[in-house]
């Protein structure tokens, strides 16, 4: 029997990572942060002096990516880059390399390999459309751009980083526009995905809703 997958897609700072991780913990499932793979690819390329628009060069980097996920920590070639990959600069780089078809192809099987028993919760932009189209539960998580920019701002301030709300809003809107407009695996709400609008919904309530859909699905 195929390993069950819960696919959670949505725009930047909609809460995908937080909610997907908690749903995975509640169910004892594995968790895939697919955005981290694009972020790692962008970081690895820039460390090797490869431009983010060099499709063949970046795809080679993605193929060879030496990455290890260990709980909250992410290692690139043995180096703990957990904080570094969360910067908005790397987020912008991730969305640039993610628009390149060869880069997406290079990361496809690596993502599918996360689907292991007893199940997987995967978050990103194309989990339900491309990577796990057979997922029995698909969720499209969203919130207004204002709320999402505010969340990202608070997250950066909480980490002791400098943050400018206007710059974050502009970056986030540009990144969302690029993710929605690209020709390959664009961000969109699938007809078979449940919509979860979280502008006025707390984390616990959002997690509860996904678990309710999951249990209703399995019933
Ligand atoms: O993974 P994604 O970029 O979609 O978002 P995230 O990193 O999981 O969430 C961004 C921030 O929003 C985190 O600090 C969450 O704790 C917060 N959040 C929230 O305040 N309310 C929600 N319903 C969801 C997330
Ligand atoms: O945390 P946030 O939602 O801002 O971003 P992320 O999920 O870490 O993804 C960073 C970038 O990688 C996104 O802006 C997308 O361009 C790209 N991405 C993608 O194209 N497909 C995925 N499955 C996941 C991320």
UniProtKB/TrEMBL annotation:
Q: Which UniProt keywords apply?
A: ATP-binding, Cytoplasm, Kinase, Nucleotide-binding, Transferase
Q: Which GO terms describe its biological process?
A: nucleobase-containing small molecule interconversion; pyrimidine nucleotide metabolic process
Q: Which domain of life is it from?
A: Bacteria
Reaction(s) catalysed by this chain, per the record, are:
dCMP + ATP = dCDP + ADP; CMP + ATP = CDP + ADP
What Gene3D superfamilies does the record point to?
Answer: P-loop containing nucleotide triphosphate hydrolases (3.40.50.300)
Identify the residues that the record assigns to the Cytidylate kinase domain, covering every copy: 6-213
Name of this protein: Cytidylate kinase
Q: What is the scientific name of the source organism?
A: Amantichitinum ursilacus
What gene makes this protein?
Answer: cmk
């Amino acid at each position: 029997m195929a390993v069950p997958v819960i696919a959670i897609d949505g725009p930047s700072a909609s809460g995908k990572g937080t909610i997907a991780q908690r749903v995975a913990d509640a169910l004892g499932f594995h968790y895939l942060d697919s955005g981290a793979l694009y972020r790692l690819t962008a970081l690895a390329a820039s460390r090797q002096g490869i431009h983010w628009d060099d499709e063949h060069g970046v795809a080679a980097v993605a193929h060879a990516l030496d990455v290890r996920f260990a709980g909250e920590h992410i290692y690139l070639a043995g180096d703990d880059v957990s904080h570094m990959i969360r910067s908005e600069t790397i987020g912008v780089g991730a969305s640039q390399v993610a628009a390149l078809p060869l880069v997406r192809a290079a990361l496809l099987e690596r993502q599918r390999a996360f689907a292991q028993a007893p199940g997987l919760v995967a978050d990103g932009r194309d989990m339900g459309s491309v990577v796990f189209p057979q997922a029995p539960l698909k969720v499209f998580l969203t919130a207004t751009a204002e709320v999402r920019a505010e969340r990202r701002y608070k997250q950066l301030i909480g980490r002791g980083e400098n943050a400018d709300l206007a710059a974050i809003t502009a970056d986030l809107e540009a990144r969302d526009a690029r993710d929605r407009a690209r020709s390959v695996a664009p961000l969109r709400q699938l007809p078979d995905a449940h919509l979860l609008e979280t502008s006025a919904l707390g984390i616990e309530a959002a997690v509860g809703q996904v678990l309710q859909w999951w249990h209703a699905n399995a019933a």
